Amino acid sequence: MDKKPEKLVPEVRFKGFTDDWEQRKFGEVTQRISKKDNNINFPHIEFENINSGRGTINKNLKDLKSNKTGIRFQKEDILFGKLRPYLRNWYFAKFSGIAVGDFWVLRSKENSLFLYYLIQTQKFYSISNLSSGSKMPRSDWQLVSNCKFYFPKNSTEASKVANVISKLDHILSLQQRKLEQLKQLKKALLQQLFVGKNNKQPNLRFKNFDGEWEQCMLKEIKDVRDGTHNSPKYQKEGYPLVTSKNLITNGIDLSNVSFISKYDYQEINKRSKVETGDILFGMIGTIGNPVMVKKGGFAIKNVALIKNGGEVSNGFLLHLLKSAIFSQYIKKENAGGTQKFLGLSVIRSFKFKVPDKVEQGNIASIFDTLNRFITLQQNKLTQLTTLKKYLLQKLFI
User: Fold this and answer.
1) In angstroms, rounded to a whole number, what is the distance separating the alpha carbons of residues 241 and 181?
2) HSE-up of residue 46 (Cα within 13 Å, Cβ side)
3) Measured between alpha carbons, how far is 229 from 227 in angstroms, rounded to an integer?
4) CA triplet 35, 37, 40: central angle to 5 degrees?
5) Which of 150, 159, 195, 255 gets the highest tally of CB atoms within 10 A of its CB?
6) What is the pLDDT of residue 112?
7) 217 pLDDT band (50/70/90 cuts)?
């Protein structure tokens, strides 16, 4: 006896729905709009106006006015970036406008929101990436329109699937906005809490602090070194050798680090041993990106090392090095250079202004706290993004 085929249903389903889903060609449920227009009264969306993978616009509507010719779309149409589809430039229209450039404008014949999330599933992603062209690949409409996807027979089920992911998208947008606001707050504080070259006090200051900041040179207050400039022999196992590529916003990433022998590790550390509380930042290629060392046990190459200790705390100095004051200094020293490189003597000659230790501690504390909030917010976003990916896998076939 032949085995009965499994029901064609998603893995996760809303209560009360039992019917099999049905296969239909994408082109049967979708109308591709191609009418051209250049009406200057409509917002004009271009490829770069869409936040990749987020389905949001990065400009205000008033800033999207143009006289360029494109495809006229209406509310609840779907813009799908057919150029380099792996960039995931898609948008569910909340207004009428004109799509300029390499877009498909898709209009659902049934449920627009369900179709919008269908194009975000792995199956659609795989089909749309079977593109024509190599340098500038574009999705193939003939291929996509004839590909079969599964749809609920019951329109209520399609609406429930779309609505639950839409609510999650709304939460994601709110959380993304919170993260961006925290980053903007940090950027503003980096500008206001440190003293620039031509000032004696910061623009924003803690209560009961009113004295002028003191100018100093990095080499006068800190032990500044660098790692090896040689290329030791790499091996499969051993001691990590950290370069600028391993320095990331939140610390040191050892996931793609190279390894060296114990002998090379000890030789490098004779002049540049890295310890907890030290500061590292890149000297070649990616310059800057300072990080605080939380745990040693590695050697460094082409990386600056600022040892901990002294009257200026590394906690304060770390955030100063992340400010525009240091980035402008780097830019000035590299003006006209073809190879991005910051020499040790240049680093040691960096001049800046500092307050007393108590105010240093206050400034370091506020940025440390803000960084913790940013990290927590990023973790929330990661969890929500993972949940959306799960729902796209389980609520669709």
Assistant:
1) 36
2) 10
3) 7
4) 155
5) 195
6) 97
7) very high
For tokens 């149409």, name the residue: 77
Helix H or strand E segment including 240: strand 239-242
Is 368 within 8 Å of 170 (Cβ atoms)? Answer: no
Summarised one tens digit per residue, pLDDT across range 313-326 is 999 999 999 999 99
> Is 302 within 8 Å of 283 (Cβ atoms)?
yes
Give the number of other CB atoms < 10 A from CB of residue 92.
19
Our measurement of the distance from residue 47's CA atom to the centroid of its chain's CA atoms, rounded to an integer in Å, reads 18
User: Measured between alpha carbons, how far apart are the two ends of the chain, in Å?
Assistant: 27
Residue 286 — very low, low, confident or very high, per pLDDT cuts 50/70/90?
confident
Q: Is the dihedral of CA 206, 212, 214, 215 positive or negative?
A: positive
Task: Give the pLDDT score at 372.
Answer: 95
Using alpha carbons, list the distances in angstroms from residue 254 to 214, 250, 259, 313, 344: 37, 12, 10, 26, 24
DSSP letter (8 states) at residue 363: H
CA atoms within 13 A on the CB side of 372: 5
What was the pLDDT predicted at 132? 65
Q: pTM score > 0.70 for this model?
A: yes
The per-residue pLDDT for range 122-150, each reduced to its tens digit, is: 999 999 988 766 678 899 999 999 999 99
Strands (E), 224-377: 224-226, 239-242, 247-248, 251-252, 258-260, 279-282, 288-292, 299-300, 303-306, 351-354
What type of residue sits at position 16?
A: G
The rounded distance, in Å, linking the Cα atoms of 212 and 201 is 6
Give the residue carrying structure tokens 């040790």: 344
CB atoms within 10 A of CB 139: 23
DSSP structure string for 162-193: HHHHHHHHHHHHHHHHHHHHHHHHHHHHHHHS
pLDDT tens for residues 151-188? 999 999 999 999 999 999 999 999 999 999 999 999 99
Q: Which domains does the chain have, with CATH numbers?
A: 22-151 (3.90.220.20), 155-209+355-397 (1.10.287.1120), 214-353 (3.90.220.20)
